[in-house]
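One example given next:
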Amino acid sequence: MIGTNPLPFVRQYYVDNIVSAYRAASPRVKRLGRAWYPNAHDLAELIGEGDVRKGAGILAALSANKGWAENVRLAQDAGSGNIHGHVRNALDKVELIASGTDPRFVLHGLKTTNFFQCILDPTDDFPVAVDRHAHDVAVAKTYGEEPRGLSTPSRYNMLAMCYRSAGAQLKVVPSRVQATVWIAHREAISGVGHRGQLTGGA
């Protein structure tokens, strides 16, 4: 019908795709997804030497354009005082966080801010780290190197809302839904299992 707003139908399509992907995940992948952010939280505590907030901030600040294994390695180095391996902007943020500045005053990107919150509190039912894999699961298409528009707040927030809706439908914390379908999607496009473990890369 002319004049009908298609956005609710698009959102429902995305929610349905996320729910279907979660339900299709193997028991092993669901176990990995359930443990992903709690394990990241414990890792952040180690990196921050007891200060989870600091460790989570360092991990988030170094996460852009890095696989998880590299992200972890650089964060562990940064926690030990060796801040390196990223663009200057990211390293400046790590230096501020490592020196005691609260990450919420340093992190500004949509994905990095949400990633920080997911690591800081895996039980929080609001933040969702929408990266390229989370996006592709929602839209049911692997974009490869195509732009996804995730730097646009309206696009990012709409997808995050879809993960919250999917979580409500599944009765699962949205970040756990995201971690689970993220692992499943990465394994599907790489053809390699066990890639979702904290020691195995992102």
In short: Residues 27-190 form one domain. DSSP finds nine helices and no strands in the chain.
